[in-house]
Design a protein that fits this description.
The complex is a heterodimer of chains A (606) and B (190). By secondary structure, chain A is of the alpha+beta class. Helices cover 22% and strands 34% of the residues of chain A. In chain A, strands 2, 4, 5, 7, 36 and 37 form a six-stranded mixed beta sheet that branches. Chain A has a four-stranded antiparallel beta sheet with strand order 8-35-34-33, with no helix packed on it. The termini of chain A are far apart. The relative contact order of chain A is 0.08. Chain B is mainly alpha-helical and 190 residues long. In chain B, 66% of the residues lie in helices and 0% in strands. Chain B has eight helices and no strands. The longest helix of chain B is centred in the C-terminal third of the chain and has 24 residues, at 158-181. The two termini of chain B are 34 Å apart. The chains are: A alpha+beta (606), B mainly alpha (190). Chains A and B meet through helix 1, helix 3, helix 4, strand 8 and strand 32 of A and helix 2, helix 3, helix 5, helix 6 and helix 8 of B.
Chain lengths: 606, 190
């Protein structure tokens, strides 16, 4: 076999193209005899390997990525939204139509502005939609112009009474939608509403809905209802075989009350309670009853430079406070993942951090035996007190009260100390357990403390006096974490004995006990604010999303590394739509995709 | 920021369905999955990072538009590569750098043997071989596709793919042999 043939055959062999056994044998024999042949094999393999290495070093620049994503957003806003009219707008159409005095004035104004060189024609359909006294329209709405948006808004607000007394029929709305040109979302919502509901009053323009699927139609924002009046709660976007859960919040989403479940077809008739407080912060939420459809999407993965401990979020979810093993607290913007602040002062690992309700102050505990209170924005330390303990002079956990006036500190000796946040003075100390406090948190109403201990115990205590309200049966090992539903009826504990236990708070009865990790330690249990999910974190085990009403696992959220020594610490965003998990030095943010929707804006009961 | 593979990762098809509904987060996931692959392909095809960025962006934008306009895309990877390679070939033709496929053209090129960056040498060698050989070689050898997958992407038969890869490797070996033999024994690696 000559050199050229040999080389060709080698390539063919390495590519897997040489399949004839005889030919392969011939080649191998030739190679065995030929040093040059063997060298050719080595060279070829080496060369291909070099290509692989070269290829693996190539990646796009972050700037290019950012530019692309910005272009996508622009495309979505300019081309894909319902308000985006095709460039070849039919301007002849509206020119033909008659003009009302009012629209004519608006049209003149807009015409002047259109002289700046950008314009869309406002369809006569807009005139029809506005109704009363508007026989035609010469209003010109410009694309992407804040000026046009303001003018359009004004028209919508001014004509609101007319809008809601002359809501177009569905087929007319459909034809209107093709030519209608208002800022994102308004037209879309109006089109879907069809015949609507006569109880509407002033309605602010709704926001753009992010995704399809389940969609609240009514009440959706701005409506006013009398106490005792009947509301026809409506939604769309699911098959009529999908049972829906309907909840109402009186306080702009802070708390939710279940008003119905298992509803298959709207409307749901709900009477506004006679004893409702006069307020305007009502929202309705509809969601699929079977939350097994949850599909988490990993949206962010950020690598820190050292191991992280339990995170905490600001009340609005925009700031993430991370304690780490290096004795630092880092503060992150959860929208941009920009590092905002780094606080240094502790000399050892930070165990816990909490943020005040007004986001101005944080407190931290550390293995260095101190509890520190910080103005995190300036980085200034406000107070420092010594930890308390029998063996270790350490305070393990710290949490602000709902008003931010008091700091509750869980100590190694089983005591809980209340500290005045402003003065740093100790107000009260009580002893719920005789061993170290392991976890400490306030109930949703701020009136109770949830406390667990290394002595396996867990319980609920009065936040003012420290008096025991409910004690739950002990775990077999350290009770590491505790969480409670917003309505205070369900408490859940997680333990080093590997069990997660669900408790009826009123009676203290154990509802169920589940080993999620085959008996491995539970690090953290936490309920989502809307009560739909329980997140269970272990040590080096994937985080689980669980249905708190049944204990069933809904989804598994993998960790980036599987280090069994390090805890995985989940925390929900205030709207329950995201879950942030810290594990080792990773920060993972998951979007929890579940078919649900909330009123676009608040409505009121008077 | 980088995504990592997980058991929870949802299929491309599901993601494209969400993109169809305007879900930009779903698009970002698709983008994360394929950005490196696509950019690498464009970069090695074109030999120019700036143009490669333009082309790979165009491919993703085309994907987004297609999804939003209701087009059902079963294989996102193929879709992106098809769009990208067409644009790459168009660009190469317009710039006069498209080397026609001609078996009789002697593959004798001069490499800049003074280049000390091995990556640059390899990239330069790639640019010396005909574009059709190059794209086939990139998909097979760099991206690790099978003959069948490359064939589907390029819309040719597996035999043609096999043939092109063979010729590409032979050409590259010939181009790089002088460097391989330079100042070393025959068995020394680069």
């Amino acid at each position: 076999m000559d050199a050229m043939n040999l080389q060709e055959s080698i390539i063919a062999l390495l590519q897997g193209d040489l399949t004839d056994k005889g030919a392969v044998n011939d080649l191998l024999q030739a190679l065995a005899k030929s040093q040059e042949g063997q060298a050719a094999v080595v060279r070829h393999i080496s060369l291909m390997r070099k290509f692989h290495v070269m290829g693996s070093s190539i990646s796009p620049s972050p700037a290019a990525d950012a530019s692309l994503l910005a272009q996508i957003t622009q495309i979505e806003n300019n081309e894909m939204s319902p308000s985006a009219a095709p460039p070849e707008a039919n301007s002849a159409e509206w020119l033909r139509k008659s003009f009302s005095s009012r629209s004519f004035v608006v049209g003149i104004l807009l015409s002047l502005i259109a002289g700046m060189g950008v314009g869309w024609a406002l369809r006569p359909a807009y005139k029809s939609f506005l109704g009363t006294g508007v026989s035609g329209s010469s209003a010109i709405v410009m694309d992407s112009s804040s000026i046009s948006h303001r003018i359009v808004d004004k028209q919508i607000v001014d004509d609101n009474a007319a809008v809601h007394s002359q809501i177009p029929e569905r087929n007319q709305a459909d034809s209107l939608s093709k030519n209608f040109n208002v800022r994102n979302g308004v037209r879309d919502k109006e089109e879907r509403k069809g015949s609507g509901n006569r109880e509407n009053n002033v309605r602010p323009a709704p926001q753009v809905k992010k995704s399809g699927g389940l969609n609240v139609l009514f009440p959706n924002g701005g409506e006013r209802f009398k106490k005792g009046s009947m509301l026809n709660i409506k939604w769309q976007g699911v098959a009529d075989t999908t049972p829906i859960v309907v909840q109402v919040s009186p306080d702009n989403g802070k708390t939710w009350s279940l008003i119905a479940k298992g509803i298959l077809t709207p409307p749901l008739h709900w009477r506004a309670p006679n004893n409702s407080p006069d307020q305007g912060g009502y929202l309705v939420k509809v969601s699929e009853e079977n939350a097994a459809g949850v599909l988490p999407l990993l949206m962010q993965q950020v690598r820190h430079d050292t191991v992280l401990n339990i995170p905490t979020l600001s009340k609005d979810g925009t700031l993430l406070f991370l304690p780490d093993y290096g004795g630092r607290i880092t503060v992150w913007d959860t929208q941009t993942w920009r590092l905002i602040q780094k606080l240094e002062g502790h000399s050892k690992s930070i165990l816990h951090v909490t943020v005040s309700p007004d986001n101005s102050t944080i407190a931290s505990t550390s293995l260095d035996g101190t509890v520190r209170v910080w103005d995190w924005q300036t980085g200034r330390q406000l107070h420092q007190i010594a930890g308390k303990g029998k063996v270790l002079q350490i305070s393990w956990v710290v949490v602000f009260s709902s008003t931010g006036d008091t700091l509750a500190i869980g100590n190694d000796d089983g005591t809980v100390t209340f500290l005045d946040t402003r003065s740093g003075k100790e107000l009260l100390t009580f002893q719920p357990f005789d061993e170290a406090i392991r976890s400490l948190s306030y109930s949703a109403d701020g009136k109770q403390l949830l406390i667990t201990s290394t002595n396996k115990g867990s319980g609920i205590f009065d936040a003012q006096t420290g008096l025991l309200i409910r004690r739950f049966a002990d775990h077999e090992l350290i009770a590491n974490s505790m969480t409670m539903s917003q309505d205070g009826t369900l408490a859940i504990t997680g333990s080093f004995d590997g069990t997660v236990r669900f408790w009826d708070v009123a009676t203290g009865r154990l509802i169920r006990s589940i080993q999620y990790f085959g008996g491995d330690k539970i690090g953290r249990v936490i309920l989502s604010p809307d009560g739909q999910f329980l997140a269970v974190g272990g040590f080096g085990r994937d985080v689980l999303l669980v249905d708190p009403s049944t204990g069933a696992v809904l989804a598994t959220l993998p960790l980036a590394v599987a280090d069994g020594r390090i805890g995985a610490w989940p925390i929900f965003s205030p709207d329950s739509h995201s879950l942030i998990v810290t594990h080792e030095s990773d920060i993972l943010k998951w979007r929890l995709d579940i078919n649900r929707d909330v009123s676009d804006d608040v409505w009121s009961i008077h | 920021m980088a995504a990592f593979s997980s058991d929870v990762m949802i299929t491309d098809e599901k993601l494209t369905q969400r993109v169809m509904q305007g879900d930009q987060d779903a698009f970002r996931l698709l983008f994360e999955r394929y950005r490196t692959l696509l950019y690498r392909f464009c970069s090695l095809m074109l030999g120019n990072h700036t143009i490669a960025e333009d082309v790979y962006q165009e491919a993703f934008i085309a994907l987004y538009r297609a999804c939003r306009q209701g087009e059902v895309i079963h294989n996102v990877r193929s879709y992106l590569l098809t769009v990208a390679r067409r644009r790459c070939l168009n660009h190469l033709r317009s710039k006069g750098r498209y080397v026609p496929l001609d078996d009789d053209v002697p593959l004798v090129y001069e490499l800049n043997l003074d280049a000390i960056d091995l990556s640059e040498v390899l990239r330069e060698a790639l640019l010396k071989i005909p574009a059709q050989y190059r794209e086939t070689f990139l998909l097979f050898e760099i991206e690790g596709y099978s003959y069948k997958e490359v064939a589907a992407c390029l819309d040719v038969s597996s035999d043609i793919v096999r043939n092109r890869i063979y010729r590409a490797k032979k050409a590259l070996q010939k181009i790089l042999d002088p460097l391989l033999d330079r100042g070393a024994t025959g068995t020394t690696e680069l």
